């Protein structure tokens, strides 16, 4: 009976299982994208990784990929300096912004400010880079030439990751139960005492996860940093020295890289990806550990 | 009707006036009880927790049967077992038999869709879909193959008249159903269940989420449906059960045990001369 | 009376100090935001005209407009959405409606998307270059750029759509099941229309992300600023155009300002629209609760 042509449920049952099949296929493909990326990164870098020891990326004397010198350390250092600097700047500013939205501002002002931060998050990196190049770099140049420097990279990166930190800290603080705060106020704690004693400990997990997320963004950011950092392969001596980061190195040299040079760029891509994966694993571990 | 028999569009859309089902067309009146749902040794388990233990009960055609008892005694589980909504709950295991029109519904070959067409359900909280009123009514019809616009409109008007909602909403069928008041929403949900021309209506505390006025309107509607549909209603409102029901079933749950059927009989009997002391205590408000 | 006077004063000052810091931080952020906007407006507004929007660039972009660039951007966007939307929404529907939250398969898909969300865009660029441009032989083309972007958009589209579907109250699913609707029909006729504003907001966010992207397109869709003839032609996206004008073309600052202004205006509109959608949807959902 069920298979008879006149049974309208025949059509429905078929679509039900058909739909499920289609949905599963979509999900499998989505999951495969990640795998595909890892496979191709490894495949492309294997021509080099298979031949030379990975230690050479850290022990070679210089970055002259055409002559077989693959010293990645200055770039790695550049990435770390720029990200650390940006974080040092963006964390206080971001958390202060979140505090402003949740505790200090009037509801109306808070709404507008939150909008502004969300819009800031929507500004593309190339525009940040362009603005840095045309405004920030000449300014820094007046203080200490050449202008395109670690400092410019830090400032631009801080601006770019600030919305991430603000918005995650905001949602973490909003999730703190009201009773906690009411109790704290009832105890006569001043506002800062309440925030430090009650709100921060309760929202710590979310805030730290947001900071880890922002770190990932800072490490991977390419274009904006490329435009303002000066791109000299060196260990910077100070804030005003130009640097080159791993990501911008890929963008700069990929256009003409061949053979081993190309492979080493894929290696640095793989390295970036590993760093980001480690960070997201850390964020997940942190989140689980503190919820339990 | 055989649950395995395919429902055709024609079965739903026969053109009769008045109630979506003719008065007492379904069989004899309550004075001459003929079981339409036979429940035999029904046990129900969520994972390790047993919610219902060996319930045996007949629901009579054309009558209103009220299920009463304290919270957590398995009334709602009993109700959802009848139209197999329990299928949606993971870990839910059912033992025993439920026969609707003589057909066991919990067998692999029985057709869930056909069952749910025949057994409509109304929930405690009014749940109109956040779509237009017209769409709320046409959605289930499309599902059962009624696609002609004129036919859908005719059925919609008929069910809205049946629940007394037509005069209130006929000029705003295309506005969102969420704009209706709580009582109107609940009547719309009843109308939506009626579009499929069910024989049986299951109602899970249909009045408890409404204000007293709206509750009265819905209650009147339910008693008007008596005789046209077989109705099983869960209610915590004993006065309401007494006013509208023909039969009453009293469920009880002992501590850390499963829900049980204590007593079943004519409403008058249950309320005025219950045999079981537990029932008497519950009715008089000394227990539960 | 537990505290001494001095300590109370210290607490008072600390409270004040923090407040001052918070207000200063907020002022700084606002000022910088305004600074960027004003800078862009001052630098590019005079150069903006209807002709600028429709003409093709000449002399490496110093003269002419951004007509062909806008067309390429749109084409890349269309390819990306065309590939990513079906995949993302089917994945989201599966995760939200069909797979229990604790299932292995669901966790795997979710985890891989979560990692994908964190992958830097330059790595997507590398992958796109190796896979789409070279391995699949699409070369530097709008198609390979669009597909690379599609990979990048997947996580954000999936997560917004899944959240949207999960926000639909369960009572609707129960009512639909009680009416004998199949799961497929419930999903297509009921849940998707209800969650449509959330899906649309996610779509807008995805569009914003795609239009803003530069690094992933650098080695996939290429640099050519001519009007593209087909999807297999190379086409320069607007963000890439800004990059090229400011870095590689001396004297390209003014058109770069104007292009940046166009890009930012586009993104602000998209984001504001998405925010409105989300807000009105949330308001409706709170009424439902």
From TrEMBL, chain A:
<keyword id="KW-0592">Phosphate transport</keyword>
<comment type="similarity">
    <text>Belongs to the binding-protein-dependent transport system permease family. CysTW subfamily.</text>
</comment>
<keyword id="KW-0997">Cell inner membrane</keyword>
<keyword id="KW-0813">Transport</keyword>
<feature type="transmembrane region" description="Helical">
    <location>
        <begin position="152"/>
        <end position="176"/>
    </location>
</feature>
<dbReference type="InterPro" id="IPR011864">
    <property type="entry name" value="Phosphate_PstC"/>
</dbReference>
<keyword id="KW-0472">Membrane</keyword>
<dbReference type="GO" id="GO:0006817">
    <property type="term" value="P:phosphate ion transport"/>
</dbReference>
<feature type="transmembrane region" description="Helical">
    <location>
        <begin position="116"/>
        <end position="140"/>
    </location>
</feature>
<keyword id="KW-1003">Cell membrane</keyword>
<comment type="function">
    <text>Part of the binding-protein-dependent transport system for phosphate; probably responsible for the translocation of the substrate across the membrane.</text>
</comment>
<feature type="transmembrane region" description="Helical">
    <location>
        <begin position="21"/>
        <end position="43"/>
    </location>
</feature>
<dbReference type="InterPro" id="IPR035906">
    <property type="entry name" value="MetI-like_sf"/>
</dbReference>
<dbReference type="InterPro" id="IPR000515">
    <property type="entry name" value="MetI-like"/>
</dbReference>
<dbReference type="GO" id="GO:0005315">
    <property type="term" value="F:phosphate transmembrane transporter activity"/>
</dbReference>
Automatic annotation (TrEMBL), chain B:
<keyword id="KW-0813">Transport</keyword>
<keyword id="KW-0592">Phosphate transport</keyword>
<dbReference type="GO" id="GO:0035435">
    <property type="term" value="P:phosphate ion transmembrane transport"/>
</dbReference>
<feature type="domain" description="ABC transporter">
    <location>
        <begin position="37"/>
        <end position="283"/>
    </location>
</feature>
<keyword id="KW-0547">Nucleotide-binding</keyword>
<dbReference type="InterPro" id="IPR003593">
    <property type="entry name" value="AAA+_ATPase"/>
</dbReference>
<keyword id="KW-0378">Hydrolase</keyword>
<dbReference type="Pfam" id="PF00005">
    <property type="entry name" value="ABC_tran"/>
</dbReference>
<dbReference type="GO" id="GO:0016020">
    <property type="term" value="C:membrane"/>
</dbReference>
<dbReference type="InterPro" id="IPR017871">
    <property type="entry name" value="ABC_transporter-like_CS"/>
</dbReference>
<dbReference type="GO" id="GO:0016887">
    <property type="term" value="F:ATP hydrolysis activity"/>
</dbReference>
<dbReference type="InterPro" id="IPR003439">
    <property type="entry name" value="ABC_transporter-like_ATP-bd"/>
</dbReference>
<keyword id="KW-1003">Cell membrane</keyword>
<protein>
    <submittedName>
        <fullName>Phosphate transporter subunit ATP-binding component of ABC superfamily</fullName>
        <ecNumber>3.6.3.27</ecNumber>
    </submittedName>
</protein>
<dbReference type="InterPro" id="IPR005670">
    <property type="entry name" value="PstB-like"/>
</dbReference>
UniProtKB/TrEMBL annotation, chain C:
<dbReference type="GO" id="GO:0005315">
    <property type="term" value="F:phosphate transmembrane transporter activity"/>
</dbReference>
<keyword id="KW-1133">Transmembrane helix</keyword>
<dbReference type="Pfam" id="PF00528">
    <property type="entry name" value="BPD_transp_1"/>
</dbReference>
<feature type="domain" description="ABC transmembrane type-1">
    <location>
        <begin position="70"/>
        <end position="274"/>
    </location>
</feature>
<dbReference type="InterPro" id="IPR005672">
    <property type="entry name" value="Phosphate_PstA"/>
</dbReference>
<dbReference type="GO" id="GO:0005886">
    <property type="term" value="C:plasma membrane"/>
</dbReference>
<keyword id="KW-0472">Membrane</keyword>
<keyword id="KW-0812">Transmembrane</keyword>
<comment type="similarity">
    <text>Belongs to the binding-protein-dependent transport system permease family. CysTW subfamily.</text>
</comment>
<protein>
    <recommendedName>
        <fullName>Phosphate transport system permease protein PstA</fullName>
    </recommendedName>
</protein>
<feature type="transmembrane region" description="Helical">
    <location>
        <begin position="254"/>
        <end position="274"/>
    </location>
</feature>
<feature type="transmembrane region" description="Helical">
    <location>
        <begin position="69"/>
        <end position="96"/>
    </location>
</feature>
<keyword id="KW-0813">Transport</keyword>
<feature type="transmembrane region" description="Helical">
    <location>
        <begin position="20"/>
        <end position="38"/>
    </location>
</feature>
<dbReference type="GO" id="GO:0035435">
    <property type="term" value="P:phosphate ion transmembrane transport"/>
</dbReference>
